[in-house]
Amino acid sequence: MRIDIDQDVCIGAGQCALTAPDVFVQDDDGYSTLLPGAEDGRSPLLREAARACPVSAISVSETVG
């Protein structure tokens, strides 16, 4: 899976980090970022975390290959 966080849209609400703390964390400025090694998108809560974002800054898509 591919996980994208639109940093221009993110407001730092932290819902993604609360929902899937094994994938997302908030940086020093409070904005969401991926934890190192979480880019593979294997968390069962990943899609729920994307849905929890109040501004839809997170997109999850299937990778082909």
UniProtKB/TrEMBL annotation:
<protein>
    <recommendedName>
        <fullName>Ferredoxin</fullName>
    </recommendedName>
</protein>
<feature type="domain" description="4Fe-4S ferredoxin-type">
    <location>
        <begin position="1"/>
        <end position="29"/>
    </location>
</feature>
<dbReference type="Pfam" id="PF13459">
    <property type="entry name" value="Fer4_15"/>
</dbReference>
<dbReference type="InterPro" id="IPR017896">
    <property type="entry name" value="4Fe4S_Fe-S-bd"/>
</dbReference>
<comment type="function">
    <text>Ferredoxins are iron-sulfur proteins that transfer electrons in a wide variety of metabolic reactions.</text>
</comment>
<keyword id="KW-0411">Iron-sulfur</keyword>
<keyword id="KW-0408">Iron</keyword>
<keyword id="KW-0003">3Fe-4S</keyword>
<keyword id="KW-0813">Transport</keyword>
<keyword id="KW-0249">Electron transport</keyword>
<keyword id="KW-0479">Metal-binding</keyword>
<dbReference type="InterPro" id="IPR001080">
    <property type="entry name" value="3Fe4S_ferredoxin"/>
</dbReference>
<dbReference type="InterPro" id="IPR051269">
    <property type="entry name" value="Fe-S_cluster_ET"/>
</dbReference>
